[in-house]
Amino acid sequence: MLVASAALARRAPAAMAVVLAVAALQAINAKAEPRLPELTLPIDCHLGIDCFVQQMPDIDPDPTAMDPLCGEATYDGHDGWDFRVRSMLDVARGVPVIGIADGRILRIRDGVADRIVLDGEEAEGLQGKECGNGVVMEHEGGLTSQYCHLKMGSIAVRPGMFVPRGTRLGFIGSSGLAQFPHVHLGVRHNGREIEPLTGRELTDASGCRRPNAGLFTKTIQRLLERPQHAILAAGLTDAPPTLPGFVAGKAPLARAGGTSTLAWVWAINLQEGDRFRIRIVHPDGSQLIDQTTDPLPRRKANYLAYAGSRRDLVAGTYRVEIDLLRAGVPATSMKMSVEADG
Ligand SMILES: [Zn+2]
């Protein structure tokens, strides 16, 4: 009896010790993981108007690719968000890349040329410099952010500086491994890559379409959850245009004198089955064309469509109207007057 009560007496403090240990652990955890800051966009622009989401992270650990909204606006192994501008003309103009939260500058790199890299040989020459000119920032709660492909010579911060959210880090560029001018945003938590829209580890595919724990502000979250198709530009010309020229900033001009009249449309993040309705109204008021393109056989990240007539391109004001048709209804449209110069 005496033995048993001694055992009980010993057990009670032991149980108390466990409770205290758990409380202490919780305190340590609370200390080690303070609240993460809310994030905003890494680019100072109007999303969907003068800058666009071109690619999201790939959250699928397998060789297939899936974006955080369970779609395909990504490619295998892509580990960040790509916010693009239209062309190198925007790089020349200077679009600020900005910090997504208050933080301290950890590292920078500058001195990598701005180029559009389309072939494998050029890509090989960039090994180890894929990010191009970049900035790494450290934020509250063990969060870091990385910004890639900035314009050469534009980096406006130095390691050790503490800068508030929205501070200009540099300008958007196309340095490193970039097929178009953009900023690639990568986010890490305690050194591990995470997907900021879902708030989960980067390759946690179970987070797809469940961005409730996301790190972005509610406003930004809503912007990023929208479908990311967009018409970047449209216009009129007299000969079939090609896509690489558009990114370089050389969209064709409407010059009177050609023997055909074409309307073109440049769009991103198109889906299988999407079509374009392309209309041109002649300066004399007649409808020159009203054509609908064939449905796309598969998703297109970046696409150029055109349609036209063999009628001469004459001096005067044309009207061009473009609808992107998704499931038969306009998902987005662009209407414009185009002055053809004689
Ligand atoms: Zn990227």
Helicity range of the residues?
10-25%
Percentage of β-strand residues: 25-35%
The radius of gyration is: 26 Å
Number of domains: 2
The secondary-structure class comes to alpha+beta
CATH topology of the largest domain: Glucose Permease (Domain IIA)
Q: What composes the largest sheet? A: 9 strands, antiparallel
**Average of per-residue pLDDT values:** 89
Count the helices. How many?
Answer: 5
State the separation between the terminal residues, measured CA to CA: 113 Å
Q: Which outline best applies?
A: globular
The CATH H-level homologous superfamily of the largest domain: Glucose Permease (Domain IIA)
